[in-house]
Amino acid sequence: MSLRNRLSGLFKGQSELDLTDGSIPKSLFFLSLPIVITNLLQVSYNLADTFWLGRYSTEALAAISLGFPLVYLFISLGLGLTVAGSVLVAQHTGADDAAAAEYAASQTVSLTLLAGMGFGMFGFVFVADLLQVFGAEPAVLGPATDYMEVISLGLPFLFGFTVFIALMRGAGDTITPMFVMLGTVVLNIAIDPLLIFGVGPIPELGVEGAAIATVLSRGSAMIVGLWLMLRGSHGIRINPQEMIPDAEYVRKILRLGVPASIENTGRAISVNAVLVIVTLFATPVVAAFGVGIRVFSMIFMPAIAIDRGVETMTGQNIGAGRQDRVVATNRFAAKTSFLILSTLGVLTFIFAPDIIRLFDDSPAVVAEGATFLRWIAPTFGFVGVLRAYSGGFRGAGKTLTAAAIAVLLFGFIRLPIAYIASQDLIPVDVWFLGTRTPTGIWFAFAVSGIIAATVAASWFELGTWRGTDLSGSSDDADQSGGDATQGESVGETDPGPTTSEA
């Protein structure tokens, strides 16, 4: 009996789930659980790098702390395309239009790979200049540049596996990507220390070795993912003859994908901009911020999984004309995400120093990292609410709405508060205010999360995501806002299958 069969009681495959009917909690659980595991495995790439480089040197850890937000920025630019593909596949699947779903998937794969090559070449050429913006110490800047140059060359592989996960998810298959990820994580963990520290004929490569291990592992994952989609035996099928870029269809993917890229890029720019403020402090603060962000990413895996599950369920139910289930799914997901993340927040608050110490046992890094975690831990539940409703907006095709929340709230609230509260610019001496301290940065993270959740929930309840249908005949489109999915058919006349976008 295969491992997959043995786990059938815990996981439900695509053929066993009807996301447009039946129990919402059950569907969301079986859809999201493999996403949680997949995301935890994906984060383990970064955690493995952080673990081994933390033992290599503090400068090496600070180097990937400096490079990680830039990696996130590059990937975020491509994620919008994968979101567009996922939403289109989900809606066409819900409408029971397999040909349209396959055409959308094929076009998305080719466009995403091209984007990965373009961003990779740009990153390799300009990464040194981009990193200099952060003003880090020379001992950190050099290794960070080496790390980012390798990652930049490997962006097509990173993009390729990301689009595989997204398209499978849109079709309702989240188990296959989980198993593929498991195999490649084992590969990464095996070769990471060998390339970082060197062994036998393998030279000691330090930070650059960690980057090479990540690219090799994700490259193998991309190859397996593309092979599975070409076979079409799981999730979604792609057809080579439909992968030739169709200018008209590419334009339609971009109308959905660009706002989604703006959402992800807005989050990434926020982290990068905050990093500029963080680098105004000593190297231990930079290292603490890097470790904290990675822990932050790991803690939020359940919320991100629910976000993606809601995105898929919303898309399929809109395709099936079940807007009642859209409302119920989003509200249930928000409540569930709040409870799960709040519980994790309590545990993080209690064990904050021990968590940081797993990655860097330097007393200065542990002290500042624990302070960071204890400021943001009580607000974890609110970020869970934000992610749940953001998934609903994207699944409904309202990618511009999700982008507006991310950019306006994180860019125009978190960043100004972080700078003002940390740089002794307030003429009062209350609590940490009135002093130059990184505590102001941690305070900004907490405040922006609460505000963002409140706005997202209120915006969803206004019902502005309604009024869409797959026939493209929506009357109440949000054309003034430029939301691609309302009031404009995705399948106006295509050389490929006739499709339309909600």
From TrEMBL:
It is found in: Cell membrane. Keywords: Cell membrane, Membrane, Transmembrane, Transmembrane helix, Transport. GO terms for molecular function: antiporter activity; xenobiotic transmembrane transporter activity. Pfam families: MatE. InterPro entries: MATE_fam, MdtK-like, Membrane_Transporter-Flippase. Residues 470-502 are annotated as: Disordered. Its main location: membrane. Residues 471-487 have a biased composition (Low complexity). It comes from the Archaea. It is a multi-pass membrane protein. GO terms for cellular component: plasma membrane. The chain crosses the membrane at residues 28-48, 60-90, 111-135, 147-167, 179-199, 332-352, 372-389, 401-421, 441-460. PANTHER family: MULTIDRUG RESISTANCE PROTEIN NORM-RELATED, MULTIDRUG RESISTANCE PROTEIN YPNP-RELATED. NCBIfam families: matE. This is MATE family efflux transporter. It comes from Haloglomus irregulare.
